[in-house]
Every structure is written in structure tokens, then in C-alpha cells.
Design brief:
Layout: E1 10-14, H1 19-27, E2 32-36, H2 46-56, E3 60-63, H3 70-75, H4 77-98, E4 101-107, H5 130-145, E5 149-154, E6 157-158, H6 170-179, E7 184-187, E8 191-192, E9 195-196, H7 197-207, E10 214-217, E11 224-225, H8 226-236, E12 243-246, H9 266-270, H10 279-289
Parallel strand pairs: 1-2, 1-3, 3-4, 4-5, 5-10, 6-9, 7-12
Antiparallel strand pairs: 8-11
Helix pairs in contact: 1-7, 2-4, 4-5, 6-8, 8-10
The structure holds NADP nicotinamide-adenine-dinucleotide phosphate (NAP).
Length: 296
């Protein structure tokens, strides 16, 4: 593991009760972390944000906040840009003034999917929807403002805390529907790499011990459609419900999504970070942690 610093550091963690924030808080237990919670701490309110960060005087700021209800972003581009881009620029400026580094998260949805093979950090983004545009704007504003940044693109997050904004996450939603006897219709034509927040949090904790700033792809390994992901979850817990694979066009979603948005962790591997596990292994671990009896 590459290591540039030792000893606990002062870290400000924004969105500490979110899906990823919850696992970051646990993983960073050895550091001196100030957990910041919405709406008390709202990154779109620039003056209070600056005052609070100045009082913490962090060495690292980790921002997990986002407006990421993808379809709603189509109707609310102002809010998407306010949270995902302009507030992020302000954070980058505050970090610059405080001499802190900034960890910020972006998305596989900055790509249009036409490559059809895993995307590396050097590939040109081409978002198809407002959410992706706003996240890409956030990326550019961070890069343009602050040298000491870690920009981390990830994909299909799931973790024990779930995502309040989206009413949970895919795995819990699909298991719950089966338990309730509801029909299971799952998109079969979008290929992704679902990623465990436990593993992402570990990767972040390792990365911020280094001075290897820049843009990173960080996901579990391998790829699948959402349909295959659902199938595997049920296989692991020994159930065989009927699942219908549907095309994303059948959902009539407002936002267009890429049909292929698998990310290759090229840079994370190049700097020697501990490898991420295959998505099937990460899913097995998750289901075990949730208390399911899972086959090996
Ligand atoms: N979830 C995914 O599948 C996925 C995929 C790719 C990339 N990402 C990116 O990964 C990051 C983390 O995602 P996540 O799933 O952990 O999201 P999450 O569960 O929604 O967590 C975000 C946290 O930030 C808080 N927050 C929202 N608006 C805020 C604001 N204006 N100021 C301060 N805090 C605010 C939320 O509070 P409330 O919960 O009270 O609103 C929540 O605690 C985001 O940048 C997201 O774009 C996520």
C-alpha cells in the first residue's frame, strides 16, 4: 500500500449519514473525523459552510453530498448544478484557502456508453443527461480550482445505510419486492459494475494516505446487467423467483442512461491500491452482513 502520511488527520466528512458516508465514518475510525450532517450543514449555503470548515481546519475534506435523483435532475437543472457543481467549486476554493485536500465523488454517468468496453480515466466523457452534465461540471470545477484533489468516479453503490434520497438501493429494493410477492421486472440492457460502499470506503481511506492526487475510477471488478445482478442476489440466498428482463426503454424514464458504463480502475491499480473484489464476492459479503444465509 502506498503511504505518504502517518498518524490521525483532521478530516471533515460531508454527508456522514449517507450511504457511502456511513461506511466512510466507520472505516476512518482511526482518524480525527468531524461528521457533518445535512441539513444543518448544507454545502449550497456558502457562508456557513466556509465558517464551519474554518473552525474544523481540516487537512482533508470528503464530500459525499449530491443531488442524484437522476430523473428529477432533468426537471431541476438549477438544483443539480447548484449542488453537484457550484457548491463543489466553493468547497474546492475553501479547501485551497485552508490548505486542505478535497475528496469528491463523481459517476459512471459522465459517459455515453458507446465505447462498449470498460472506460478508463483518459476516455472523453459525454454525458447523456442533466445529472451527468452537472457531475462532470463539478469535476472540471474541482480540477480547475484545486490541485490537491481526489476525484473518484464510481458506479451503482449499495451499502447497509441505503440512500435516503433514492429510498434505499437496488439490492434491498429487489429483495423486498420478492418478499412482498411483487412482480420483478429488471433492466437487462444496461451494463454496469455495482459497487459496495464498504469496499469503496476502504479504497478512499487508502488513497487519502497518499499524495497521488487526480482522477480515479473506483468500482468492484467485473460487469453485469441489473438483471444479472438481481439473479445473482437471489442465487446467493437460494431463491429462484421469476424475474423478467426488460429494456430500459420500457421504463419510460425521463433521463437517458448509458447502456454501458463499466469503469476500469486503471489508475488505482497503477498507484498500487489494494485491488477491489469481484462484484459477486462483494455482493455475497453484503448479503452476509445483512444476515442472509448465503451459499459459498
Ligand atoms: N448511489 C449511487 O449509486 C452512486 C453512483 C455513482 C456515483 N455516486 C456518487 O457517490 C456519492 C455518494 O453517494 P451516496 O449513494 O452515498 O449518496 P447519499 O446516500 O444520498 O448520501 C449523500 C449525503 O449527503 C447529504 N446531502 C445531500 N444534499 C446535501 C447538501 N446540499 N449539503 C450537505 N449534505 C447534503 C445527504 O443527506 P440526506 O440523505 O439527508 O439528503 C446524505 O447524507 C455522490 O456524489 C453520488 O453522486 C453515487
Amino acid at each position: 500500500m502506498p503511504s505518504a502520511t502517518t498518524g490521525p488527520r483532521r478530516i471533515a466528512l460531508i454527508g456522514a449519514d449517507g450511504q457511502l458516508g456511513t461506511d466512510l465514518l466507520k472505516t476512518l475510525a482511526g482518524e480525527s473525523v468531524t461528521a457533518l450532517y445535512y441539513p444543518d450543514f448544507d454545502i449550497t449555503r456558502s457562508d456557513p459552510t466556509r465558517a464551519r470548515l474554518a473552525s474544523i481546519n481540516p487537512e482533508v475534506v470528503i464530500n459525499t453530498a449530491a443531488f442524484h435523483r437522476v430523473d428529477e435532475c432533468e426537471d431541476n437543472p438549477e438544483q443539480a448544478l447548484a449542488v453537484n457543481a457550484l457548491a463543489v467549486r466553493n468547497l474546492a476554493r475553501m479547501c485551497r484557502d485552508l490548505g486542505a485536500s478535497l475528496v469528491h465523488f463523481s459517476t459512471d454517468y459522465v459517459f455515453d456508453g458507446r465505447k462498449g468496453r470498460p472506460y478508463v480515466e483518459e476516455d472523453a466523457p459525454q454525458p447523456l443527461m442533466v445529472y451527468g452534465v452537472s457531475k462532470l461540471a463539478g469535476e472540471y470545477l474541482v480540477r480547475n480550482t484545486l490541485e490537491r484533489h481526489f476525484l473518484i468516479r464510481t458506479c451503482g453503490l449499495y451499502g447497509e445505510a441505503g440512500c435516503k434520497e433514492k429510498g434505499g438501493h437496488f439490492v434491498d429494493m429487489i429483495l423486498r419486492r420478492e418478499e412482498q410477492g411483487l412482480p420483478l421486472r429488471v433492466v437487462g440492457d444496461q451494463r454496469v459494475t455495482p459497487t459496495s460502499t464498504v469496499e469503496l470506503a476502504r479504497g478512499v481511506a487508502e488513497l487519502i494516505r497518499t499524495e497521488h492526487f487526480g482522477l480515479y475510477h473506483m468500482t468492484n471488478e467485473g460487469e453485469c446487467s441489473w438483471y444479472e445482478f438481481a439473479r445473482e442476489a437471489f442465487d446467493l440466498i437460494g431463491k429462484k423467483p421469476r424475474i423478467e428482463a426488460v429494456d430500459s426503454s420500457a421504463y419510460g424514464s425521463k433521463a437517458r442512461r448509458p447502456l454501458y458504463s463499466v469503469l476500469e480502475n486503471k489508475k488505482a491499480k497503477a498507484v498500487g491500491l489494494h485491488p477491489f473484489s469481484h462484484w459477486k464476492d462483494a455482493l455475497r459479503d453484503y448479503l452476509r452482513r445483512k444476515g442472509y444465509s448465503v451459499r459459498d
